[in-house]
Amino acid sequence: MRNVYHDELSGLIDTLVEMTQLAESAMTRATTALLDADRELAENVISADRRIDDLQRDLEERAVGVLARQSPVATDLRVVVTALRMSSSLERMGDLARHVAKLARLRYPDSVVPAELRATVLEMGQVAERIVAKAGSVIATRDVQLAAEMEVDDDRMDALHRQVFEQLLSHTWNHPTEVAVDLTLCSRYYERFADHAVSVAKSVLFLVTGSRDEDVAAQRI
Amino acid sequence: MRNVYHDELSGLIDTLVEMTQLAESAMTRATTALLDADRELAENVISADRRIDDLQRDLEERAVGVLARQSPVATDLRVVVTALRMSSSLERMGDLARHVAKLARLRYPDSVVPAELRATVLEMGQVAERIVAKAGSVIATRDVQLAAEMEVDDDRMDALHRQVFEQLLSHTWNHPTEVAVDLTLCSRYYERFADHAVSVAKSVLFLVTGSRDEDVAAQRI
What structural domains and CATH numbers belong to chain A? Predict the structure, then answer.
């Protein structure tokens, strides 16, 4: 019985790690679709999001099953409750990648991103890719040091987000309002994606250390 | 023992209802602060958000306590797990009201909202106010009919959200890019606020009927 129980708990962790991999793949492909105005790739990201949603639903059912059958206490109980919360964040990260892909599809065959912002958006995609990859490692290994490193990535994402606004509001900006609207939303999707990745890592930190870092909530813009 | 247990469960529900009231009050005041460029009111909304955050944290601790001590099963277990999920949505709704208030503060003494969009933003505030009020009633009463009505409010919010974009992209739009950026974000905050309210109501529906409505996720833009 104990073995089945611990298999169930580690199965929840495995699913969370799988969700980070899917979210990473989704955001990476969404960024490429956005920058290359690749409609097929955008469609692919949009339809693949269902897989993350299904995993979340499945995880939730299994978590409730563990709670009902095993009545875990102490750390095990925290693991299950935290897994529920993390799965919501990861599901939401999938949604945000889908939103980026939808923008790419909406403007096809035009590109959403004008030349002067390509490097910024490209880097937002890269930061998103590595922050969610780190979130996956933190879930799998409970590496507190790596979780702390993610703050640096999140700061970088916030800086890039501000950089987009600075460009949009600079006197050299000469694109239609539509482009500004698209980029405002797009930039916010990346920024929220990183926030969710950090919140996943903070959940792991809380499991390991028992303390919450208030700074994370404060960093949200 | 049973009585303490049921008091604890109904205490979770009471806290959720209180959170809806705080979120309602926050978004209503944030809308006023935005439309009247009232910095003091904006500050008030921003500082009051901590109360919702504290309630959510407290609810989570109590929910984990109930799970650990009482090992609820069946419907009671679903109530606790669902309360955790709903509290996250409500906490996030408080954040979104705070974001609206922050926009008002950022542009003070200017108003974020130009004359031609005042009526639209005012109505977004009203829809937000009534959809969260209904979410509170649905939590308290498990009124399935009222939960269904919220879809109408959410559809209205989506229509208003589109209306904002139509204005921003119309050929008569003649404001600086900054105004378009602010309104894009602002409109998205209201739209997400309504989404979260609907997701709260859907959680209650799931508790009552045991079935999930797939349409809700599909409606997210």
Answer: 2-219 (1.20.58.220)
Q: How far apart are CA B221 and CA B217, in angstroms?
A: 9
Residues of B in contact with A51 (CB under 8 A): none
* Structure-block tokens of residue A117: 């912002």
Question: Are B74 and B156 contacting, i.e. CB atoms less than 8 angstroms apart?
Answer: no
Chain B neighbors of A188, CB-CB under 8 A: 185, 188
B67 contacts A78? CB cut-off 8 A:
no
ipTM above 0.95, yes or no: no
Question: How far is it, in rounded angstroms, from Cα A46 to Cα A105?
Answer: 10
Q: How many CB atoms lie within 10 A of CB B106?
A: 12
Q: Please tell me which of the candidates A60, A71, A95 has its beta carbon nearest to residue B71.
A: A71
Using an 8 Å CB-CB cutoff, list chain B residues near A106: none
In chain A, % of residues over pLDDT 70: 95
CA distances from B99 to A23, A57, A159, A199, B3 (A): 26, 29, 18, 18, 41
**Residue A182 token pair:** 């698209």
Whether the upstream peptide bond of residue A114 has omega within 30° of 0, thus cis, is no
Which residues of chain B, if any, have pLDDT below 70? Answer: 1-2, 213-221
**One-letter identity of residue A59:** L
Which chain A residues are closer than 8 Å to B165 by Cβ? Answer: 181
A180·B185 Cβ contact <8 A: no
Mutation to test the A interface, candidates B162, B177, B187, B190, most A Cβ within 10 Å: B177
Q: How many residue pairs from chains A and B have C-beta atoms closer than 8 A?
A: 75
The whole-angstrom distance between residue B183's C-alpha and the CA centroid of its chain comes to: 18
pLDDT in tens, chain A (221 residues): 568 899 999 999 999 999 999 999 999 999 999 999 999 999 999 999 999 999 999 999 999 999 999 999 999 999 999 999 999 999 999 999 999 999 999 999 999 999 999 999 999 999 999 999 999 999 999 999 999 999 999 999 999 999 999 999 999 999 999 999 999 999 999 999 999 999 999 999 989 988 776 444 333 33
Write down the mean pLDDT value for chain A.
94
